[in-house]
Amino acid sequence: MSGLLPEDVSLAVPDIALGLALLTAAGCALIPRSRLALAAGFLSLGALTALVWLRLDSVDVGLAEAGLGGGILGALLVWLAIRSPHSPAPDSAETISTTQPTSGTRRTSRPILNPRTLLGCAAGAVLGGGLCLVWFQVLHALPAWSEPLEEQMETTGVTHEITGVLLAFRAYDTLLESAVLMLAGVAVMALGRDGGLHQLSLPQPEVPSALRWLVRLCAPVLLLAGLWLLFAGSSDSGGAFQSGAVLCSLLILLRTAHALPSRERTEPWIRPLLIGGVVVFILAGLVGPLLADPLLSEAWLSWQPQWATAAVLSVEILLTIGIAVGLFLMYLTLENPEGVQ
Amino acid sequence: MTDLIPSAVLPWIPLVMVVLSLAAAVAIFPMGERRVRLRSWVNLSAAVAKVLLVVLLVPAVVAEGTRPEFSVPFLPLGEGESIDLVLRVDPLALFFAGLSALLWLLTTIYAIGYLERGSDRSRFFGFFSLCVTATVGISFSGNLITFLVFYEILTLVTYPLVAHWGDEKSLRAARMYMRYALSGGVAVLIGVIWLTMYAGPVDFAEEGGAEGVAALAAESPGVAVTIFVLLVGGMGVKAALVPLHSWLPSAMVAPAPVSALLHAVAVVKAGVFGIVRVIDDVFGIEVAEELGVLGPLLAVACFTVLYGSYQAMRQTELKKRLAFSTVSQVSYVVVGVSMVSALATAGGVVHLVHQGIMKITLFFCAGLFAEVIRAHTIGELRGAGRRMPWTSAAFTVGALGMIGLPPTAGFVTKWQLGLGALDAGQGWVVLVLLGSSVLNAAYFLPVVWMLWFAEPEGESGEAPDAGASDEAPQPEGEPQREKEPGALVVPAVITAVATLAVGLGAALSFAPLQVAEAIAEAVFR
Amino acid sequence: MTELLFALSFLLPAGAAAAIACAGLLSPSTAHRVRRRAGLFAPSAVLPAGLLALSGEAELELPWLMLGSTAAVDALGRPLLMIAVLLYGAALSSITWLKLRDAERGSGALSAWLLVCFCGNIGTYLAADLVSFYLAFAVMSFAAVGLVIHYRDAAARRASRIYLFLSVFSETLILAAVVLLGSALLAPSEAVDPEFDDGGAPDAQESLLLEHVPAAVMDSPHTGLILGLLLVGFGVKAGTVPLHVWLPLAHPAAPPAASAVLSGAMVKAGLVGWLRFLPLGEDGDAGARDAVEIAAWALVAAALTGAFLAVLVGVLQKDPKVVLAYSTISQMGFIAALVGVGLLVPELAALTAGAAVAYAVHHGLAKGALFLGVPVVKHYGHGRTGVLVLLGMAGAGAAVAGAPFTSGAFGKYVSKEAVEGVTVLGVGLEDILPWVATGSTLLLLRFGWVMWQAERAPRRRADGELLSWLAVCAAGIAVPWLIGAQWMPEEELPAEPPTWEASVLWDAAWPILAGLALGGAVWALAARGLLPDWASRADGTVIAPGDLIVAEESLAVRAASGTVRGVEAAHRGLEDRSRSAAEALLSAGRRVRSWATRAETRLSAWETSGLVLLMVLAATALMWWWG
Amino acid sequence: MTTAEFSLAGIVLLPLLASAVAVLLGSRVRAVLGILTALLICGLCTAVLIQTAAGGITELALGGYEAPLGIRLRADGLSALFLCLSAVVGTVVSAHAAILPASAGHPGFWPLWLGCWSGLNAVFVSGDLFNTYVGLELVGLTAVALVALGGRDSWMPALRYLFVAVLGSLLFLVGVGLILAAAGTLDMEQAAQQLAETPEAHAAAVFALCLMSVGLVLKLALMPMHRWLIPAHAGAPGAVSPLLSALVIKAALFVILRLWLWVMPLDATTEAETGLAEGLSTALTALAWTLGGFGALAVILGSVMALRQDRLKPLVAYSTVAQVGYWFLFLPLLLDPEAGALEGQPGTTLAEDAVLSGALSGSVALALGHGVAKAGLFLAAGLLKELWGTDEIESLRGAGRRHPLLILSMGLCAVGLIGLPISLGFTGKWHLATSAVAAEHWWIIAVLVLGTLLSAGYLLRGIAPLLLQDAKDPQDQEHDAAQDADASAESPRRQRLAEVPAFVLGLLTVLTGFLAVGIDALMGVGAPW
Question: If pLDDT is split at 50, 70 and 90, which confidence band does B471 have?
Answer without folding.
Answer: very low
